[in-house]
Amino acid sequence: MRLHNIDTVEIREKDHLLRKSYLDKSNLSPDLNMEPLGQLSFVKIKGLANFWEGKDEKEFDFDAIMSDVLSGFSSLQSTFTFLLIGSPKEIGVYVGTDQFNQSILSSSLHASYPYAKLQEVEMDEMSQKLRSIGNNGGIITGIPTNKTFGESKSQQIERLCTGMYGSSWAYIVVAKSMSPFQVTLAHERVLNEIDNVSKFIKVSESGGSLGKESWEVTNLTIQKYVDNLNSLEESMDSGRTMGMWRVAGYYLADQFINATKLRNLITSVYNGEQSKPERIRTLPVDNILYYASNFQFPANELPRQKAMKHPIGVWDLHGEGITKEVHCYKYLYQTILPTGELSTLCQIPRKEMPGFYIDQYVEFDVANRRSIHDESNSFTVGKIINGNEEIKSYEKLEPSNLIYDMDLMDLSRHGLIVGITGGGKSNTSKGLLRNLWNKHRIPFMVIESAKREYWEMYNMEGFEDVLVFTLGAEDENSVPYRINPFEKIEGVPLQTHIDYVLSTFKASFELYAPMPHVLETSIYQIYEDRGWDILSNKNKYGANVFPTLDDLYYKVDVVVDNLGYDQRLKSDITAALKARIHSLRVGGKGAMLNTDKSIPIADLLSRPVILELEDIGDDDVKAFMMGIILVQLYEYRRTKLTRNKGFEHLILIEEAHRLLANVSGGGEGNVRAKSVEFFTNLLAEIRSYGQGFLIADQVPTKLAPDTLKNTNLKIVHRIVMQEDRELIGQSMNMTQEQIEYISSLRRGFAAVYAEGDMRPKLVQMPYVKEDFDYSRRTVIQNVKDAVKNEFHHYDRKYDFGPACAFCMDKCNRREEMGKIKGFIVKQNWLRDMLEDAKNAEFKPDWFEGLFEMLENNGMSSLRNYHTRLCTLNVFLDNRDLEESYKREAVINYMKHNLLKDE
């Protein structure tokens, strides 16, 4: 039928072609014509950060992000693929493109989706994944409608995943960009068609009984056709600017019932008001797996007659003497979509599901605000992470990396590393120490409280001379350490050292009244017993010998007896205080601490040194050890270094809360709090001597508050507890979002803050890899041999009796004692005297009388001072007298006869 020179039958046929009504009757051939897409590369999107949270939906369009990605690839005349692959356990999200554009794809995704986690996947592997699903499915064609569901604003892609969860299935979209010239020609042709047809929508007619009536007639066939043309024109116009694509889709499932379910989901989810002129259709296809798994386009064409009739199917282009055939809508099972509509089919989920995570998104500073005047003093911490970049583990920095660095001298202002176990603290510490030594040749000491990890640095290039000491262990697989708490560094006032030692005791052990007073009195007396004058700092015996823990342990009995407490209180005080001191004297701890001489601290500060405390099980003893080492170091720095000398050395303290504890309250807590305050003040002061500290701990709230205040560099790995996050966050000027985010930091990442930063930066730490593979046994043996050669005389201890403490010639005097004992046994006249000695008080005069009788009977060697000490040991041995008072007898004799025969 013709209406005013237009054939409505032809219009109806064209409209059917626009709407692809012929597909409603289609029985697809099992042998589809296919167009190969070439070699493709894929990435699996393992997760995103929720950068869209909290943004106004009116101003922020998440869907537009994928449109931007697709638009970029459209300009490259590229192929784009999008896949969802579901299994009973998880759902995988994949994106692919031409192999030569793979790097552009990864960069584009990282730039568009901050902190996206990508994993490269080869085409063969993707094909294998699809082949493992099943051969039930078909083709997807049509124009999708962009819509959300419910109050939760659930995306269409999420509805698919939720509906198919627990099944084996796949949703595949393949697209190939069209030539801009082709799109422009098609758009012009559509406009011309609209102009040619739209004027026939409404026509005026006249007639009536008198032939003078007129009315307007609307041709609904033409109206619907023009409406569909207008929809097509809008798509083509959008495609001119954002890109246009030839698109086909596939759906697969393991079972027919699941394929039917997926098919219905796709049509219900994507069909809508905007699905014009071509609604979403899902067409079952036999042997669909072959086509889908090989990533091919269905290339079956419309019959030429129909293609020529389609408004933008196939037509001839005439101009400048040439004729060229142009085609656009000539394929049966492909849909022409602009970038915006294609993105609706390829949206990345915004909700977490098995196999695809959604992390919290937080913005950190990325710009360096510090200026380092001398590049040789630039100390690198790690790589600053920008949300719009690919995150990969790294061992060495590249020139293109954004570096978090600081002035080397600022390390003397101390640092803090916190985070839960497994968060990357040790790796970070090793990386900083490696950089410090290999690049800047700054030595360091590690005080490792709980684990044995830092010995592995021996396996790194440049650390062949590192010393590893196993504090508290004395077996063959250990490197013993020696330190006498009462030995002061030359040049330090004795009074000052005593105060330091007392503070260490109080910080390490719980002492209730009057234990601190008894301890203080005992310490002063053992120094006096050894001949030290507290005021003049001189030894009246002329020797540089210091008390030991044995001296302190036995002195407690004497001091408590002299203080006049009642018997019950005396017993309680003595038992409690001696128990604490005794814990330092037994086993490997005793061999290490109950010694005459310390390994010189000066020899340990010129190289990398690691002190392992794992073999010391008692936390109080560990704290005591850490404190004494710090005291020794502080005294050395005060006497050997001048102020403002720069950065000379770094000490890393693991599990620092054992010494720098957050202590509050009264009673014994107040005593301990004052001692902790002493050590925090020590840290604040020692920086002026070129000594830096790096404090590592798992729980910030366990550390003394001043520890957070007095550390410039702060490195925060993952922290879970809110109170810990709030505390450390406030000390780093974190936003509330950043404070919450550090509970989900990945291993190897940390929030880093130092002077010059407005807010912390998110930094990825280098992975510290070992260069060699020496076993611990080999490392310990090598170090043990080196230590033995250099410090061989410090592990000797001569203690054959209470008088040995005053011997100035501690060598092989054991033979001297044997000779004396043999001589005495031969003297019959001495038997009665020995019987009398059982009840003697062993006063100095009694010993003088003994020596005179022995000398008169032929023992001329008693004129030697050391022989007299050996004789005292012989006579006091097996005497019915407490060890404390045996020592007092020797002390009284020494005071009465100060070097009388020398």
UniProtKB/TrEMBL annotation:
Q: What InterPro entries does this protein's entry cite?
A: HerA_central, P-loop_NTPase, T4SS_component
Helicase HerA central domain boundaries: 410-625
One Pfam family assigned to this protein is: DUF87
Q: Which PANTHER family match?
A: AAA+ ATPASE DOMAIN-CONTAINING PROTEIN (PTHR30121:SF11), UNCHARACTERIZED PROTEIN YJGR-RELATED (PTHR30121)
Protein name, as recorded? AAA-like domain protein
The lineage is: Bacteria, Bacillati, Bacillota, Bacilli, Bacillales
